[in-house]
Amino acid sequence: QVQLVESGGGLVQPGGSLRLSCAASGSIFSINDMGWYRRAPGKQRELVAAITSGGSTNYADSVKGRFTISRDNAKNTMYLQMNSLRPEDTAVYYCKLVIQTTRWAYDDDYWGQGTQVTVSS
Question: Which of 4, 9, 50, 66 would staple 115 via disulfide (CB 3.0–4.6 Å)?
């Protein structure tokens, strides 16, 4: 079994910063792609940022230049550094990891529990 634990959300003023973490534990053979998603009230879930096993990244246009995704493979952990936060960044943020649990298993998607980010003065 695999468990994902997210942390780092909270309330921040516009222009502020937060760092989200997503740590995976349990039966893990390898972690492939990783990504951060968010769902704002009344909106569909959207991809915020993603990082491949090789370290290639891509970002939603709305966060380019402000957010940075990274991963620490030794710790099975992914991060999202969020700077210059805006009220429109307010959402529940979810991590998704594509994990191979054993050498013979197929990749599967695992989701974190979500963490609330609120940007408000």
Answer: 9
